[in-house]
Design a protein that fits this description.
Blueprint (H helix, E strand, L loop, with lengths): L6 H14 L3 H4 L5 H33 L3 H20 L2 H11 L4 H10 L5 H17 L3 H6 L4 H30 L8 H26 L8 E6 L14 H30 L3 E4 L4 E4 L6 H4 L5 E7 L25 H5 L2 H6 L8 E6 L27 E3 L13 H10 L15 E6 L8 H12 L20 E4 L15 H9 L3 E5 L21 E6 L22 E4 L3 E5 L3 E5 L2 H18 L7 H11 L11 H4 L6 H4 L24 H9 L2
Parallel strand pairs: 5-7, 5-8, 6-7, 8-9, 9-10, 10-11
Antiparallel strand pairs: 1-3, 1-4, 2-3, 12-13
Length: 678
């Protein structure tokens, strides 16, 4: 009961807690310190009533079955089977029942501890540790974005279940053996206490050692953004004909506005000795790892809003989900490239020469044979990454990809190894890159930082306010990403940055998102902005795929255009090739087409309005016959996008452009022919 406390049993529970939580410090990482404290209290509030009210019945029933070994074995197998389902299936589908099932593997262990007359305290300790460890060490956004945890965390759950399946019977067997030998072997109470204490010290020592030397020690604390009321007025930029002069005007105007309006806040932060990073592409200041200071800056003069800038924890090791292991050439034009008639553009001698494409993504394997020859930082003999690469997360000086996504998208823009693996639309273009995501997740600060780098690239460890060089800016940027609310973005957070790039003549091609088939699902910035050219996904036959997000978006027709985004072959880190699908794969096709058009007609470079018109005028029209009903507009469940084949006209627009295909299906060959026309 609550009044009985037994130190040996409590220490034994402590030792077992270390053992059953051992996978988490080597596969996970702690998040924000305040969030971690909240999770600890929430777990206590959950575990205590469950143990005292519900699990008390289970303990009683299981304790009685120890007199009947076969019933014990059957009950244990059943509980472990149910717990496996509870650990693997999404909690949202099981609700409170699924949450409760996660405690079932503890039944045998907790019953054994109770049988040792340790009261409820060992039970609370073990149940608490078992429940709180994955909450502390796994980023909840993993499941939000992917529907399931990362593979290494599913493996950790499985290891823990197996471990408890072994420890429970082992403790029970040991106790039964000692009971049988109690007449011949009698140990003093201090011996039991010493043995339990040594076991706890040893196992927690191993736990701590693994955490410190094989894990990711410390907290990934969240920061925040102080967004200023005054944003730079760039209206005069449209009157400057010369593109580089226009970009310089945009750069200088943004910097002047930021330095003037941010000065009082910077002085205050300097006095507080709080780490921060100012931005000019959006007039704001990023404050690192001190979100408890947010309220201090709310309502200050000149401040529009203060928003969270969530950190993304870095796991010590990951089990990647491979895109595929294809290494050989396809021997012909890939289906996705043939269906947009990219080969027709190549036949006209247009491959994107003279155009610089930028990409912000999970990073890039710059040494990949399909990408290395086209990297602006490679001259054929040596690499120069200054002005050509920026890492907004870890400030790594050399391009790399921690997730495969970025390497795949850039391969679709311009990949070509010269040996039969032509994966890109514009293989004659050059590329630069920025890492705006860690493990596939970003935040408003990182996204803005990459856009700032593209407006005026600067060298490694340089000052973006003074070292930016607009002459090194790219022509067009591929954006196969979105910033949902759980990453910290509000609908308009990134809009000033996208508008600034457009004002400088840098075209932003953005994937529309994978939240279809419901209407009004193009909601994730920056795809919902008028200044962005957003792209929906089709199959190679030109029909929209169910997951592709639909418009309208804040009264705008979205997406703007559609392109292949299903089963697309492209480069993956390590030199191989793999297949992937999503609007992330559709967007790079359009980015590549922009490079072809601007290479074909240099007069179009920086003229984004004319370029968008040309793409739309030459696209294959895709009208939609049926107007959506209310049932069509709102999908029934999270998996409806995988099951629905129906296509209806969102927003009531059946003609072209519409909120399903935009202007239609992109046609690179026809667009280039038109661009070459005198």
């Amino acid at each position: 009961g609550l009044d009985h406390f037994d130190w040996p049993t409590f220490l034994l529970a402590l030792a077992v807690a270390a053992l059953v939580t051992l996978p988490w410090p080597v596969t996970g990482a702690l998040g924000d310190v305040l969030t971690s404290l909240e999770l600890i209290f929430q777990t206590l509030a959950t575990v205590i009533p469950q143990l005292l009210l519900f699990w008390g019945v289970i303990f009683y029933l299981l304790t009685s079955t120890f007199k009947r070994p076969w019933l014990t074995a059957l009950t244990t197998i059943l509980l472990y089977g149910l717990s496996t389902l509870g650990a693997v299936l999404p909690a949202a589908d099981w609700g409170a029942l699924g949450d409760g099932l996660l405690l079932l593997p503890l039944a045998l262990l907790l019953t054994e501890l109770r049988a040792r007359r340790g009261g409820v305290y060992p039970l609370l300790l073990l149940a608490f540790c078992y429940r709180v460890a994955p909450l502390l060490f796994v980023d909840p956004r993993d499941a939000l974005a992917q529907g399931i945890p990362e593979p290494q965390h599913i493996l950790s759950h499985s290891i823990i279940i197996v471990t408890m399946a072994v420890i429970g019977p082992a403790l029970w067997g040991g106790r039964r053996l000692l009971l049988a030998l109690r007449d011949s072997v009698r140990l003093p109470s201090w011996a039991w206490l010493t043995a339990a204490a040594l076991a706890a010290l040893l196992l927690w020592g191993v736990w701590g050692g693994l955490y410190l030397f094989a894990g990711q020690p410390g907290f990934a604390n969240d920061g925040f953004l102080i967004i200023m009321e005054e944003q730079a007025d760039l209206g005069a930029a449209q009157n400057i004909a010369d593109r580089e002069a226009r970009s310089q005007y945009v750069y200088e105007t943004l910097v002047e506005t930021a330095e003037r309006t941010q000065a009082p806040l910077r002085a205050e932060l300097d006095e507080m000795d709080v780490p921060y990073r100012p931005y000019y592409i959006i007039n704001m200041i990023r404050v690192d790892g001190a979100r408890w200071l947010m309220r201090r800056f709310e309502g200050q003069e000149g401040v529009a809003q203060v928003i969270l800038n969530p950190n993304v924890r870095e796991y010590p090791r990951r089990v990647p989900i491979p895109y595929g292991g294809d290494t050989g050439p396809v021997g012909e034009v890939q289906a996705n490239l043939a269906t947009i008639h990219a080969d027709a553009a190549w036949a006209l001698g247009i491959t994107g020469e003279g155009i610089v494409v930028a990409g912000q993504d999970t990073g890039y394997d710059w040494t990949h044979p399909a990408l290395k020859p086209h990297y602006r930082g490679w001259d054929g003999q040596s690499a120069a990454h200054d002005y050509n690469w920026h890492d907004a997360w870890d400030d790594v000086a050399v391009p790399f990809d921690d997730d495969s996504h970025g390497t795949h998208t850039m391969g679709t823009v311009l990949g070509d190894d010269g040996a039969g693996n032509r994966t890109g639309v514009a293989p004659g273009a050059r590329w630069i890159g920025c890492r705006n995501m860690r493990r596939g997740f970003g935040n408003p600060g990182a996204y803005a930082e990459c856009m700032e780098f593209f407006l005026a690239p600067y060298p490694y460890a340089g000052d973006p306010f003074s070292d930016g060089d607009v002459s090194r800016a790219p022509n067009v940027v591929n954006n196969s990403w979105g910033c949902p609310d759980f990453e910290g973005c509000f609908p308009d957070t990134l809009e000033p940055a996208v508008e600034a790039l457009r004002a400088a003549g840098i075209m932003m091609v953005v994937s529309a998102g994978n939240d279809g088939p419901g209407c009004a699902t193009v909601t994730t910035p920056p795809a919902n902005y008028d200044a962005a050219f957003s792209v929906g996904a089709t199959g190679n036959g030109g029909s929209i795929v169910s997951f592709s997000s639909r418009g309208p978006a804040d009264g705008l027709v979205k997406p703007d255009i559609s392109a292949p985004g299903e089963y697309v072959r492209s480069s993956v880190p390590g030199g191989g090739y793999g297949y992937a699908g999503g609007t992330s794969m559709a967007g790079p096709h359009v980015t590549g087409v922009v490079a072809l058009l601007w290479s074909a007609d240099p007069a179009l470079i920086g003229d984004i309005d004319a370029t968008e018109r040309l793409i739309c005028q030459t696209a294959v029209p895709k009208p939609v016959e049926n107007v959506c009903t209310v049932a069509d507009e709102v999908p029934e469940g999270p998996f409806s996008s995988l099951l629905s084949d129906s296509v209806c006209a969102c927003g009531g627009v059946t003609g072209v452009p519409n909120d399903v295909y935009g202007c239609g299906f992109i046609d690179a060959g026809t667009a280039v022919e038109e661009a070459l026309r005198p």
